[in-house]
Amino acid sequence: MKEKIWKIREGDDIKVATIRSEMALSPIIARLLVNRGIDTKEAVYDYYNATTESFHDPFMMTDMKMAVKRILRSRDQEEKIMIYGDYDVDGVTSTSILYMFLEEIGCLVDYYIPDRHEEGYGINIEALTEVKDRGFKLLISVDTGITAVKEVAYSNEIGLDVIITDHHECQDVLPSGVAVLNPKREGDRYPFKMLAGVGVTFKLIQALARTTDVENKIWKYLDLVAVGTIADIVPIYGENRTITKLAFQSMPTTWNKGLEALMKVSDLEGKKMTAGRIGFGIGPRLNAAGRIKHAKEAVELFILNDTSKCMTIAEGLDQDNKNRQSLEKRIFEEAVALIEASSNPPNQKVIVVASDSWHHGVIGIVASKLVEKYYRPIIILTIKDGVASGSARSVEGFNLYLALKANGHLFDKFGGHEMAAGMSLQENNIEALEKGLNLYADEHMEKDVLIPKLKVDMVMKLEDIGLELIEDIQKMEPFGMGNPEPTFICEGPIHHMKKIGKDQTHLSLELGVDPKIRGVGFSLGEVTEWIDDGQLVQCVCSLEINEWNQRKSPQMMVKDIRHTTATLKEIKNQILEHSVIDYFEDFEVHHEDRLSRQMLSDFYRFLMQKDSVLDHEIYFTKLMAQLDIKQTQDLKKYLMMLEVFSELELIQYEIKGLSMTFSLNKGKKVDLQDSKLYNKFL
């Protein structure tokens, strides 16, 4: 488990006091709001009171009037409109809502989503030719197209008008379409820049609805807008918070038969909706369509109005998702093997890994898992016919898009944003890309970027945790990037630690004495290797309500655990003192530092017991618990005993951080009197 930096958010105390007074908030809730930039009376009101009136005027977006005018001209002249969408959840939901709305207002409309495996990402010339040959006069891209300069130029040549709607970063030159809708355009007046692709599509729908006087009919689409917004991991503040907050109220009884079926197979029917349930339940099943087969199945799921057919599609997506998980596991294991064999991850700031045997549809997910494992930017590529295409994921603090742009000459095409991107390039450019990205990282990556960080809102006393507080925190939902779930540092003695779960990788615990609070830590089972019951620890956790047998109680969802800062500092000091001792020089030995033959014998038997079960790594905190070492300063005796054993060639050991590894020379007979260090401490 990687050591993490805990960073406590620094809120403005004056602002906390002000909004606490003005809005009658508890001090904890006031602090949490200020930490999220909600620091005025008006901002607090908007945060808690999202309505359809909270949306910005869509016509503030550059080119919106031209887009609306061109679409309505197609409707009035009965021209066929083609929606060109991306194959991820954002693209699928964008395609679906625009298709349904245009059909609702009387347009002749169809949709086209490129095959992920045959056509790849973005608008392509072959597809444009096909669309034109089928008699379409207007193409509207959703969640894609902002970098399609050559493709749109070709479309203009063949007489196919193009409207671009996208949210990805803009390059220096924009496509020459009829309209280019993207709030990130330079000089764009639209006040909220962080919409997902489906959010930009919804703004186009809103503008069309206002113009045709049917705005009251569009709010039902927010269910699908929220799904795409959450799945694309955009910040959940501003208009994105309005979208998700309103949608989460209606989703348990959604009007959309496809979404209803998907919620059934995801075991979410009738349940309270959260960003996590979309991100881990609905999103992966929708993505499985484009990853394993074709994303048009996901679009059909949403635009059909037939319960039976929707259920059949949803069940198919559920099976596709299971197949995807199996495929993903194999590719992840192969990628790890390649990385470990070919490079030294700790010294390489950006990792590029490629193979000709990987399924293109799942490598983006694998990239995210590799980032979790190595905590550094990852590019994973699959090679076919000399062309490498793939996905990239970054870590906080390293702008992936700018890094790719600096190496843009190596790509056939690329696109994305700060944290994620997609690209294609010639196979013979892979090595140059890895070198170029690492040179860029050497110049632009801050020193601590590659150390995982946990952002914490505040230190919380256990006695302050109660049901009322947790209920107040739940009113801050929906959580997500930009509006993170509140996290706290709690301190107390740890009890009843137990590994749980099918693979024993998770942790159950209790913290404190009176009060004591139960906690669960996912993927924290290995904590038992260096922490023992009864020790004083600090936890980073979020809070939730546990309901069991009609009783409610507070529960911690633990993100990380460590010994208290004071304990760790004392242990480090003991190790440091030990490392500079030269026992051949004169130094004063205090009475409390004396060693005895019995102490050495007991400690050696302890090490032999560890050795017998092949446990050759010991954390000093765990050693203190197992040997009942009450005071940290007593640890130095055991460090001295290790040195005595080493001097007598009974053991080889190495201290690494807060742990040591060792191996015993079994069967060796020695006399303690032969140790100069033992004689000095006798």
Class of the largest domain in CATH?
Alpha Beta
Strand order within the widest beta sheet: 3-2-4-5-6
Number of domains as seen in the coordinates: 4
| CATH 2nd-level architecture of the largest domain | Alpha-Beta Complex
Distance between the termini: 39 Å
Overall, the morphology is globular
- How many individual helices? 23
Oligomer: single chain
Can you count the beta strands? 21
Mean pLDDT: 91
Task: Write structural notes for this entry.
The protein is of the alpha/beta class. It folds into 4 domains: 5-49 and 454-563, OB fold (Dihydrolipoamide Acetyltransferase, E2P), CATH 2.40.50.460; 52-320, inorganic pyrophosphatase (n-terminal core) (Alpha-Beta Complex), CATH 3.90.1640.30; 343-444, Roll (Diaminopimelate Epimerase, Chain A, domain 1), CATH 3.10.310.30; 568-681, no CATH class. Helix content is 41%, strand content 20%. It is built from 23 helices and 21 strands. The strands form 5 sheets. Strands 3-2-4-5-6 form a 5-stranded parallel β-sheet, with helices on both faces. Strands 7-8-9-11-10 form a 5-stranded mixed β-sheet. The longest helix is centred in the middle third of the chain and has 36 residues, at 307-342. The chain is globular. The model has no long low-confidence stretch (mean pLDDT 91).
